[in-house]
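Per your request, structure below.
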């Protein structure tokens, strides 16, 4: 087994996604479902692995068949599972969605009484490995409850802003019981990259206007702010003044839920490659568009040739 640092370590949510195999059908009428690995940081790790990066995931599952399935899927996708533990007290989460293209995809989280991925304890972390990784990816959901909140902040603090540390704002209001603002500010101070859509940026900064949100994220501590604007494209602003304002890639949307995770994995790929900001954001945008045109999330993550083909057709 290689001892080289991972190119990407993602930390946080994992679960089983159950999607109706026919779009436009309410859950009450759906009869057949597809089963997929899910959870935003898990999908980001899969997306980066599809692009050739060496990735790992820090998370927890239940000690049940769904947990076994998720570990098998991670390995099948090329994601190292050495830090995927079991929590016998809680079942592996399941998430259902309804698919109403082009822009309505309600999610139903089954994470009670508590999701195992929120049972990551600070003392369990391999801090040297987390510090050595070229990129660490953490999420807002990881801040939603203890002990995951303390573990997430400990991982961020251990890196001390070295390398690239991405804070995915990942706002899921149904998963929070208290005010997120203090915890978001704490994570932002320790991150070098902040990524979120306009609603998530509003939670983190108080504004959803993209340019103002980007400025606020930089003022909060990030070196690079990435604001996803849906059909209006993506705005990325670096502290050095470099800006990328990239239009959306036209696509017939099938399921928009995994697009942000594909974007995240491809963003990491571009950052690792040292590309210019505009090229990185265009590449990530294309990866997200590909997944939006497909039903699933994890299995839909594109290979490099697929992304390059989309880029070749974009103006």
């Amino acid at each position: 087994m290689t001892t080289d640092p991972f190119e990407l370590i993602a930390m946080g949510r994992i679960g089983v996604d159950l999607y109706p195999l026919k779009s436009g059908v309410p859950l009450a009428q759906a009869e057949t479902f597809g089963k997929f690995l899910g959870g935003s940081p898990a999908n980001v790790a899969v997306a980066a692995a599809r692009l050739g990066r060496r990735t790992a995931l820090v998370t927890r599952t239940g000690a049940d068949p769904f947990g076994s399935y998720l570990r098998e899927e991670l390995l099948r996708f090329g994601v190292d599972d050495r830090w995927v533990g079991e929590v016998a007290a809680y079942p592996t989460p399941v998430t259902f969605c309804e698919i109403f293209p082009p822009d309505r995809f309600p999610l139903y989280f089954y994470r009670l009484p508590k999701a195992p991925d929120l049972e990551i304890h600070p003392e369990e972390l391999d801090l040297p490995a987390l510090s050595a990784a070229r990129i660490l990816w953490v999420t807002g959901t990881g801040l939603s409850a203890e002990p995951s909140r303390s573990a997430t902040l400990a991982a961020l603090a251990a890196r001390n802003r070295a390398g690239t540390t991405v804070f995915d704002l990942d706002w899921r209001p149904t998963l929070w019981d208290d005010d997120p603002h203090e915890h978001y500010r704490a994570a932002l101070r320790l991150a070098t990259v902040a990524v979120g859509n306009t609603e998530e940026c509003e939670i983190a900064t108080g504004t959803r206007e993209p340019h103002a949100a980007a400025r606020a994220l930089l003022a909060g501590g990030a070196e690079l702010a990435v604001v996803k604007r849906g059909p209006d494209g993506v705005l990325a602003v670096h502290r050095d003044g470099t800006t990328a304002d990239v239009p959306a890639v036209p696509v017939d949307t099938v399921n928009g839920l995994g697009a942000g995770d594909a974007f995240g994995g491809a963003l990491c790929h571009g950052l690792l490659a040292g590309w210019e900001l505009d090229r990185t954001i265009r590449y990530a945008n294309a990866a997200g568009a590909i997944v939006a045109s497909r039903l699933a999330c994890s299995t839909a993550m594109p290979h490099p040739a697929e992304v390059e083909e989309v880029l070749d057709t974009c103006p």
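The longest strand covers residues 79-87.

Regards,
D.
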